[in-house]
Amino acid sequence: MLTDYEKNCRSQLEKLRDKEDIIILALESSCDETACAITRGRKVLSSVVASQIEIHKRYGGVVPEIASRNHVMAVSQITSQALEEAGLKPDEIDCVAVTYGAGLLGALLVGVSFAKAYAYALKKPLIAVNHIRGHIAANYLAKPDLKPPYICLIASGGHTAVVKVDGLEDIKLLGSTQDDACGEAFDKVARVLGLEYPGGPQIQKLAREGKPAVNLPTPLKNSAGYDFSYSGLKTAVINYVHTKEQKGEEFSKADVARSFQDKAVEIMTDAAVRAAEDSGLKTIVIAGGVAANEKLREVMKQKAEKHGFDVYYPPLSLCTDNAAMIASEAYNLIRSGAEAASLTLEASATVKITDAKPRV
Ligand code: KG4
Ligand code: ZN
User: Would you state the pLDDT for residue 223?
Assistant: First the structure.
């Protein structure tokens, strides 16, 4: 039996489905960023991100318990700030959206619990959003006239995949990493080179001074599909560094960073280009934290030009974790007829790219 609140949300969502300028307040707390954003249609009215990077740097990576505690301390204040920056009162929003997975369970729970209470108090529908699909949806904010079908390369700290986007909510997995995510490999290689967390931006910076002088393998090079692997590449870098250190031989960290970054980018971009060629699509979109990488953007552009494809990516602030992308995916869900999340919604540490809604 539906509660009065659930019945009310159902009828609100039915009306919102045909509205273009839906106002969404979204929350994101899957890792080490507490974020709240408000969007109207595809326009970002405010996007507040409270990063915990400075806190976790000391430990060389995210400490889940510390992340959860800091989300608790930040979530209420950043929500007020997002409303203030958007110039809106809470009852002026149409619905609340929240990341339910994938991510750190305790961290996700903070956003999910807060969003449930917030939506219920305002008597507004709650939309549960898959974080990975949120990364893809960031592209609709950057380019509101972007229309499926297109190929999307998603590369973040937890996921790396090539998908075919056939409709706002029609996403097919073509290939994915068989082991480490690309961002994870960037972070681990950075660690072995003595660089700070998060490793991606540090490797990028150091790579600018290096040459592609270190020979590294291309795992799964001759496989027919679009799968890739980052574990072998990461291990090759670690072995190279350890061997040099054990033998007391000099080596250039900048060359290692450059060679690793070049190879990591080659692996992903080759898979995306092959997927576009094979499917006859002319548009490639990139998404996720690693999409902030300057080499990835440059190489993707060069390869796209060579093959006559268009390539799009979000601005840096929409590549790494933020709540505006969660609002954008909630917009896709509402326009595609999704139902409101129940107040029994739970957080999920793992979700698949192909999950449009929580598996109950
Ligand atoms: O999407 P994201 O912010 O969080 C997850 O959903 O995982 O991605 C974080 C990952 C980290 O591994 C980080 O090192 C990587 O994105 N990253 C980068 C760059 N900026 C962030 N990797 C390479 N180059 C960058 N400029
Ligand atoms: Zn992310």
Answer: 78
